[in-house]
Amino acid sequence: MSGSSSSSSVLELRHKHYGKNAALSYKEPLHMVRGQGCYLYDQAGAEYLDCVNNVASVGHANPQVAAAVSAQLGCLYTNSRYLSSQLNHYCQELTATLPEPLEVVYLVNSGSEANDLALRMASAAAAAAVTPHSSSTTTSSSSSLQDHVVVMAGAYHGH
Predict the structure, then answer these.
(1) Cα dihedral angle (122, 126, 127, 131), rounded to 10 degrees?
(2) pLDDT digits over 115-149, tens only?
(3) Residue of 152 and 53 predicted with greater confidence
(4) Cβ–Cβ contacts within 10 Å for residue 50, how many?
(5) Burial 57-94, CB ≥16 within 10 A → b, else e
(6) Beta-sheet strand order (sheet of 47-49)
(7) Which residues contact 146 (CB under 8 A, 6 or more apart)?
């Protein structure tokens, strides 16, 4: 796919084939065609410091990351439903950097997945907080702990 299409034709095709609820930034959307390090470049070659995308730690087009991803994709591309010594090795390396008593990680690939996981973990923690030694089965307070979520209007985790 070429990066030479005009911004208006790219916008027209986006409106035709991409979900309308996925927000664009800016009144006049920027048409980015490549990135390098901490910079993005538009179709005219103008350079922008990228302070928005989730690549700040490694940069765009990082050759080491590209090589590692390419090598892994050439070998195996799957999720964590199967046993993987690479997954175990990575998790061991990652948990070795964490303070005690943290020793388990959950890997997600988006803010939406992270929020979903956080809600499931909060629900499980709320259920565990209801003491099993209680004389009543389910109380209204335990139910409200598990069934109510507050979302901030200005919260951001993607679109």
Answers:
(1) 150
(2) 889 888 988 888 888 756 555 555 444 455 556 77
(3) 53
(4) 19
(5) eeebebeeeeeeeeeeeeeeeeeeeeeeeeeeeebeee
(6) 32-36, 39-42, 47-49
(7) 123, 126, 127
Alpha carbon of 157 to those of 52, 53, 109, 111, 116: distances in Å? 12, 12, 12, 5, 11
| For helices 111-129 and 140-147, angle between their N-to-C axes, nearest 10 degrees | 170
What's residue 55's pLDDT? 65
Q: How far apart are CA 55 and CA 62, in angstroms?
A: 10
Residue 138 and residue 63: Cα distance in Å, rounded?
55
Backbone angles phi, psi at 107, to 5 degrees: -105, 130
The CA distances from residue 159 to 20, 40, 50, 83, in Å, are 11, 20, 17, 32
CA pair distance 32, 45, nearest whole angstrom: 9
> pTM value?
0.61
The values of phi and psi at residue 139, to 5°, are: -100, 160
CA–CA separation, 63 vs 3, rounded Å? 20
